[in-house]
Each structure stands twice: as structure tokens, then as C-alpha cells.
Amino acid sequence: MPGTILHIMNYAASYRGNFIDSLWSLDKKLQLEGLKNIYLFAGDAKSEGPMSWIKEMQQQGEEVYFLAENRNQDAGLIRKLIEEKNVKAVHTHFITMQQYLAVYQATFGKKIPVFMHMHNHSKVAGNPIKNIIRRTLYRKCIMIACSESVYHSLERDYPKNEKYSIDNGVNFSRLDSYENLREEDFGLEKSEGVFLIFGFDFYRKGVDLAVKALKELRNQGHSFSLLVSLSTNFEQVEKNIIDILGEMPSWIKVISARNDVATLYNFVDVFLSPSREEGLPYSVVEAGYSSCSVVMSDISAQVHLKIPYGYWFESENVEDFADKILKAQKEHIKKLENWDKAKQSMRENYALDTWSEQVEKLYKKIL
After folding, report:
1. Is 2 exposed, middle or buried (0-12, 13-18, 19+ CB in 10 A)?
2. Are 114 and 82 contacting, i.e. CB atoms less than 8 angstroms apart?
3. Strand partners, 294
4. Cβ-contact 277, 121 below 8 angstroms
5. 319: exposed, middle or buried (C-beta count within 10 Å: 0-12, 13-18, 19+)?
6. Which of 46, 198, 216, 306 is most buried (most C-beta within 10 Å)?
7. What are the φ and ψ backbone dihedral angles of 74, each rounded to 5 degrees?
8. Which of these, 276, 122, 120, lies nearest to 202 by C-alpha position?
9. How far apart are CA 279 and CA 147, in angstroms?
10. What are the pLDDT digits (tens) for 293-342?
11. How far apart are the first and last CA of the chain?
């Protein structure tokens, strides 16, 4: 069954990350079946500076295209790719409604399956008319949930759609190489422990909760420090921290994200994920594989994750969050002593190969 799978995605991260690694893993399996991925990115990906990982894809011979962000033009491009590249299915990721309308227009009347990958929970619009319109437009989409929790939200909001649950997988091999850093590399003073949070979406990621919890622990006499890793929104995040604390304290450092993310995980004692909303967070799984302990909010997407030396707190409860941070810090040494077992546990539950095999099987079933 030779042909291609057209992945259309609204994705313009500074680093390719685990998402692109997942698609590359899938591509390797598809090529054994005579299929191949081709990639259509939202226009922002083209204008996001150097975007070295996209250039790397192109240099390696991957077929990469870009949306114009004009519905009729984009529909025309998608239609052209379907015809010229023998596209067997369209697979969307993170796309906006406007971008989906171009997909809808291009595939209307064609026997081309459209897979809609849901990387976050479905949310019902406040306007019931909008919900009806959305269900109508999406009615022929085959939905793939990135976790069981996301799947349940699809059951609620799209009961008539064909849908499947495939847990995200992680490319653990990219986490086995990392640098050994010191506190002075970040301008940090010696402390009881250093923690890490990803904070590009300040309130969704719960950075405000982390700042408040650590401030409370410092008021109790502890000397913990926090790294806030960002790829964008630096000024806004610093402003938000100042709004909460009245200053930008020396014990918080806002740093640039890095592609070798394992260097950060293995530098810190505890990774914090106090998120208010997640699909199935790659970062928590990656941290679970690394040497740090992990503290998570008990939202539905995180509460059932199998994370060795993971600690869950009641979402929004800063006091409980601070308590779990202390426990995770104390248990960090135990994780270091049993790190190999923790790694093996994560491989068994969240291997990238498992994800790509399941997606490949779904393609075979539908196609």
C-alpha cells in the first residue's frame, strides 16, 4: 500500500522535542509498509527564527511544507498534496478551527480518512450553537486521544465520532546523554535543593502555585531555588512572578529551554508539574525517567501516571503542594540509589516504540 500520510500541525517550538521524535519513530515503521510521513506546518513555524530542527528535517530529505494561513490557499495546497503525493490519510495535531476548515474544504467529497490527534482535553464551548457546529464539522474525523483521561472528554463531547486512546510515548534514548551542571552555572547560591518547572504558559502550567509554595517553604527557613525554563514569554513570566512576590528574587532564575532537556532534569532534585490542564505531559514522563523526584497536581491527566518517586498534591492547594515538595526532596536520594529500576519501569510503560506501533496498527485498520 505505497503512499504517504500527511501530518498537518500547528507546531512551532524552539526545539523539535518529543513530539517530532514521535513522528520520526512512526515514519520508520511506516516505511517498512511502503508508507511515508510528509509534514505541513503552520506558517509560524517558517518565521520562528532559525528553526534548526526543521532545516535538519529538510536536509535529511523529509518533505516539509508550510501553511499560508489563508483558508482557500491552504485548502488548495492540501488538495494538491493529496493528489500529487498519493496521500492515504491526513493526520492533524494542535490545529486551530481556521486551519481545520482548510482541511475540511480540501478533503470534502474525498475518501481520505482524517485523524484528529487530541493532545489536550476537549472543552465544551459556552455557546451551545458553537458546540453543534464543531460536532458537525468534526463528525467524520477519527479522533486519537493522547491519554485515557483525554479519551473520556471525547466520549462526552463527541459521542458519535470513531475514537481511540493511545498514550503518548517518550524517546528515552535522547535522555541518556546530558551535561553535569553546577549551581553557579545558573548564578544560584548553594541551597538545600534546586527545582525545575516549565513555564511558557504561566497559569496553565501552575507556575504561580510553585512560586507561592516555595515562598512558603523559604519562610519556614528552607533555602530552595527554582529554575523556570522557557522558550518564549520571558518578560511576561518575570512580570507575573513580580506581581506575586513584589520582586524578582535571586532564588528564582528564568532560563532558556534547551534541546538536551535531560541536562536540566538530572541537575535538579525535583521536577514540578502543578499544571491545571494537561493531555498526557511528556515532561512528567521524561522527568520520571531522570534522576529527579517529581511532584504533580492530581488533575485527571496526571493522577494515574506510573511515575517512580512521584508525589501528587491536591490541585490548587498550595499548602499540600509545599508538603509534597518537602517529601519529594527527602526521597530524592532514594531515587538516585534505585535509578536503574526507575528507568526500567518508565520504559515498560511509556516506550516510544509502543506508541508508534499502536498508531501504525490503527492506520492499517482504517486504511
Report:
1. exposed
2. no
3. 271, 310
4. yes
5. exposed
6. 198
7. -65, -40
8. 276
9. 6
10. 999 999 988 998 999 999 999 999 999 999 999 999 999 999 999 999 99
11. 9
Q: How far is CA 78 from CA 37, 97, 118, 173, 306, in A?
A: 14, 16, 21, 34, 39
State the average pLDDT for the chain.
93
CA distances from 114 to 85, 106, 141, 167, 361 (A): 16, 11, 5, 19, 16
β-partners of residue 40 are 8, 65
Question: What does the block give as the cell for 45?
Answer: 513555524
Contacts of 69-72 with CB under 8 Å at 24 or more apart are: 69/42, 69/43, 69/98, 71/98, 71/101, 71/102, 71/105, 72/102, 72/105
To which residue does cell 526543521 refer? Answer: 54
Asked which of 12-16, 43-47, 186-190, 282-286 is least confident by mean pLDDT, the reply is 43-47
The rounded distance, in Å, linking the Cα atoms of 254 and 73 is 40
pTM, two decimals, is 0.83
Q: Which residue is listed with cell 516505511?
A: 31
Q: Compute how many other C-beta atoms are within 10 angstroms of the C-beta atom of residue 121.
A: 22
Element at 168 (helix H, strand E): none
The 10 Å Cβ neighbour count of residue 44 is 14
Read off the pLDDT band of 43 (50, 70, 90): confident
* Nearest to 281, CA basis, from 350, 208, 210, 357: 350
Query: Residue 194: enclosing H or E segment and its boundaries?
Result: strand 194-198
Closest C-alpha among 252, 231, 233, 232 to residue 242: 252
Contact status, residue 355 vs residue 165, Cβ threshold 8 Å:
no
Task: State the virtual CA torsion across 235, 241, 242, 247 in degrees, nearest 10.
Answer: -120
The CA distance from 90 to 363, in Å, is: 11
- Beta partners for 131? none
What's the confidence (pLDDT) of residue 219?
96
Question: What is the dihedral angle through the alpha carbons of 326, 311, 180, 192, rounded to the nearest 10 degrees?
Answer: 0
